[in-house]
Amino acid sequence: MGTLGHQGIFVISIYFFLLILWHFRLPAFQANIMADYKERQDELKARKGKLKEWESKLRKRKKISSSKKSKPAKRKTSRKKVKKRKRR
């Protein structure tokens, strides 16, 4: 085997070494991703809850303000007496 053979074996050995390292590091990396995902989901739920509270407060405020406003009494429209034309 010449130098190309030694270089090939060296590259393959480095490749497998990195593959083994990545294999053992992967579960920890996935755990970090899952923890981050769960944390973001919790934040989203909290924001969603706050949003629902604000919406309910706004609805209550609108109901209260609309019920406080007294609607003006409707005026009866005065009907003009229409003179009937006599038929000829």
Secondary-structure map:
Elements: H1 3-68
Q: What can be said about the biggest beta sheet? A: none
Strand tally, please? 0
What's the gyration radius in Å? 40 Å
Distance between the termini: 131 Å
Note the total helix count.
1
Bin the strand percentage. under 5%
Written as H for each helix and E for each strand, in order along the chain, the element string is H
- Mean pLDDT across the residues is 81
Structural class: mainly alpha
Uncertain stretches of 5 or more adjacent residues? none
Summarize the structure.
With 88 residues, the protein is mainly alpha-helical. The protein is built from one helix and no strands.
Features of this protein?
88 residues, 75% helix, rod-shaped, 1 helix, single chain, mainly alpha
Describe the model.
By secondary structure, the chain is mainly alpha-helical. The chain has one helix at 3-68. The chain is rod-shaped and about 130 Å long.
